[in-house]
Each structure stands twice: as structure tokens, then as C-alpha cells.
């Protein structure tokens, strides 16, 4: 009798895990901080606009952590008010991506972190000038030495620290994750119907895993061509192959209600419009207004707990710190 009771109890405990495993989407795991000092340094660097030529643009300018890790613009604004070439993807849960940027040109967060600093259309600095700025500030030098054991910072340390901070920017505990873990009251009947429709339509062929995306590159316009004025060619711009033209990294759908506008060109300004276009272009399906509403309702259950921390107080510049050039 005791053995039977034990078996029943073990089966009950394993049932939620089995249910999660059977779904194409898994819960977002909580962040695991490997080096608290490096994360804290990375947080300062993420928010420090002095890593830009203007002294005005920081990582947070385009990946605003108060706005779902994006800037909610079609394309971002760079140095001297330059119009960016592509929509800014969210930094939230980006550690789960198979690669970074829409075209995957950076293999990981460390490789990505150095790109915007030296891009003339973004932060418009150089790695050398950014490092000189940091090394001119005693408080930064001391913090780099504490974390890395070196007397002076270099760009590898900078990108390591920013990446370490970005790895903590995950959003667990969404209502959908609670449903996955067994709380069947966490989402409504309409939201559940939206999820079932999302699966049955084939959306999970691309949007799966903990991030509900970010796992593959797919062609934008499988069934019908996607008309856009945006010049980005996705993976094809890197490989030069026709087969890769308009092939972009599948975006995460986590927190998607916060990361508008949608697509690489930012042309879909609402979730409803994005779902309608995706249905037609990727699946060859025209959703009814009711079906769109249900899928959108489901997508909004993917909003998780947003990063919550004290904003860093940045160390002050010194007389030797290079002066910003916001208008040059």
C-alpha cells in the first residue's frame, strides 16, 4: 500500500514536467549570475552614454529596459540624428538567440556588444577612444581591476562585462509560463484558444523554445513576397547567396506586446497587423478578425517579469576624460 502511494505521488510530481516537455514552448529560466562584479560593471557600461562620440547615446538608448528592451521606433536613431537601417531587436532574453542581429553577423552577446560603439551610424565612436575614456576615470579603472585583475581596461573586457549584464536580462514567470508549469487558471479560455490556433497553424515551426523564437533563420515571405522599401537583405547580405536573401533571424515573441513595431523594417505597428501579415506570407492563411484577436490574446500572455534593479550611478569624468562631440 505504501509503495502504491509513493508511486502515485511520484507520478503526480512528474506530470507537470512531462506536460511542459510535450509543448513546443518552454518556460524562461531565471537568470544565473556567474560573476556579480562583472554584471555590475556591465550594467554601468550599458547605461553609460560616454561610450558614444556624442556622449548622448548608450546601449539603453536603442534597447530601453523600460520599454521591453527596444526603442519602439521603426528604425533607431543614430549619431547626428541618422536614421538607422533596421528595427532594433529586443535585448531581453537575447542570450537565448542562436546569433545576434537580424542577420546573425555576431555569434554571441560579446561579439554584438562591440558593434554599435564603433558603428558610425550608431554610437560613432572607436574602440580605442571608448577605452581611453574609461581609463581616464579612476573609479572605472579600479572596478575593471577588481573584476579582471588588470591595471587598464581593454575592449575585450568592455564587451565581456556588457554581455555578462545582458545575460541577466531574462523575463521569467509570464502567465503562459505559469500555465506551462501546471497553473491552468493562469490564462483565460480565449488565450488558450489562441495558443491552440498558434500551434495548429504552424507558427511553432519557427517560434518555439523558451524564447519562442531566436532559434533559426527563415525567409520573410515564404508563400508570398514581402514588399518593403527597407534595403536589408538579412543573411543574404553576409553570404551573398540568393537562397539567403530576405532570410532573417526569427525574433523572440517573449514580451512581444512591448516590442512594437514589428518585423525587421518596423512596418507592422500593431500585433494584429503583424499576425495578419505573418499568416498570409508565411503560412498562406488568412485569419479572421476573431482568430487574430485570439492569437494576440495568447501572445500577450508571454510578457514576463521585467528586469528590476537599481539604476547605476556612473563615475564622474575627470579633466583628462575626452570631451563628447554631440554635433560633430
- The level of helicity is 25-40%
Major β-sheet, in short? 2 strands, antiparallel
The CATH architecture of the largest domain can be named as Orthogonal Bundle
Q: What is the 3D shape?
A: globular
The quaternary state of the protein chains shown equals single chain
Strand composition percent: under 5%
Assigned CATH superfamily of the largest domain: Cytochrome c-like domain
State the domain count: 2
Compute the CA-based radius of gyration.
22 Å
Counted beta strands: 4
CATH class of the largest domain: Mainly Alpha
What's the tally of helices?
12
Task: Write out the strand line-up for the largest beta sheet, numbering strands in chain order.
Answer: 1-2
CATH fold title of the largest domain:
Cytochrome Bc1 Complex, Chain D, domain 2
Structural class: mainly alpha
Mean pLDDT: 95
Please mark out the parts with pLDDT under 50 across 5 or more consecutive residues, or reply none.
none
The first-to-last residue Cα distance is: 81 Å
Order of helices and strands: HHHEEHHHHHHEHEHH
